[in-house]
Amino acid sequence: MTITLEDVRKSIRNIPDFPKEGIQFKDVSTAFKDKRIYNFILKELADHYKDFGITKVVGIESRGFILGSSLAGALHAGFIPVRKPGKLPADTYMQTYDLEYGTDALEIHTDALTPDDVVLIHDDLLATGGTVNAAVDLVKKFGVKQVFVNFFVELDFLKGREKINPNIPVWSLIHFE
Ligand code: AMP
Fold this sequence. Notes:
- The chain has helices at 5-11, 29-32, 35-49, 64-74, 130-140, and strands at 13-16, 24-27, 56-60, 78-82, 92-98, 103-109, 118-126, 146-155, 170-176.
- α3 (35-49) crosses α4.
- α4 (64-74) links the parallel β3 and β4.
- The longest helix is centred in the first third of the chain and has 15 residues, at 35-49.
- The chain is 27% helix and 33% strand.
- The protein is built from five helices and nine strands, in the order αββααβαββββαββ.
- By secondary structure, it is α/β, with parallel strands linked by helices.
- The strands form three sheets. Strands 4-3-7-8-9 form a five-stranded parallel sheet, sandwiched between helices.
- Bound molecules: adenosine monophosphate.
């Protein structure tokens, strides 16, 4: 059986009112548990980025680690974790960002990237864009050659893409309008 993008979309479980009322949570674990779907997604992502000379994939904690690390393997690139504060053991840069209520922060090791790197930032899902923008700001501190941004799923109606620097190519496999 050939997998289609529609099969992938249908495999994502919708959980109403999680983690709080009014949020439709897209549970990607139901897509990842099926080996044919997982491998289809990985192949689509790897095919999209195979000719850009990506040297490092930066995955955002924690669901961005799943496809992000597989993608690093498929692209023969290194993998760099961007994590919540206090998780990375060595020296870090930190970037705070606004949430609906309050602020949060992300960290990256100060020796994670070099100016020679071509970086692909990956997260499972783009909602309002605050998380990925913090990751972009962290990666920019290293003066890398080029930055790409990828999501497995994009919630188009939240317009997170409009908040990302327009010079950065952004691509998502699945869109919910
Ligand atoms: P944002 O910063 O608003 O773009 O939120 C993106 C981050 O929050 C990603 O790491 C997602 O895993 C998670 N997230 C936000 N909204 C949802 C949602 N509706 N379903 C699943 N994950 C979400």
